[in-house]
Write a structure and sequence with these properties.
alpha/beta, TIM Barrel, eight-stranded parallel β-barrel, globular
Length: about 260
Amino acid sequence: MNSRVKQKLGDGGEAISAKVCYQDPELVELMASGGVDALWLCLEHRKIAPDTLYAMIQACRLGGADAIVRVKPANHTDVLPLLEAGARGLMLPRVRHPDEVRAMVNMMKFPPLGQRGYDGVHADADFGRMKPADYLAAANRDTFLMVQIEEPEVVPHIEEIAAMPGVDLLFVGPGDLTLGMGMFGNTAAPEIVAIVNRVAAACAKHGKVAGIPCPPDQVANYRRLGYRFFNVFSDFRGVTAGLATALAAARETKA
């Protein structure tokens, strides 16, 4: 399975994702088939049963979007089932030190890039139909790691992480970053702007991609800084905003 995100970014383009908050595979397939490049599934703020998570990743495959799973693994057994189910990207949250990133790369990648163990009978290996050598090469080529920049402690290590083999994207987390720095929600604060620019510069220097979640009308601003990966939507925001708009429009007709 090729990665839509890696193909677009590798060609110098941009990738657009949407976040999934609800554990409904049919909704995931609907969103995946709507034209996004990836869907962001979260294991940080939600516990998802393994069979449900597998169905959600499968729904991404059916809809033609990469599955990105945010996970803070305790060990390799938290990572391998995600990749073997067909997740193309993993997002590592709450990073404070480069050693956490190195451990994740080792779990994600087969030798010589990492220390991932082989079991080539799952969805990512076309259920055992791929030749082992082809599978190993494809798995290393078509999976990607997003490292979240959202902890004050990680800021001094941004350049080192951007330079690290096996890291593909640095993904700024404005919510937790501003929270940890005592200025929750103030993304215009000079300290936050400086970090956003620092991420862009480190990625440009080391051939990596800078990403950020933002409203669609802010994409152009971050694009000018050099960002190329944007999360612009979630099912939660789509439902709540859509419902509010529909109710307001319906109630206006009473006037």
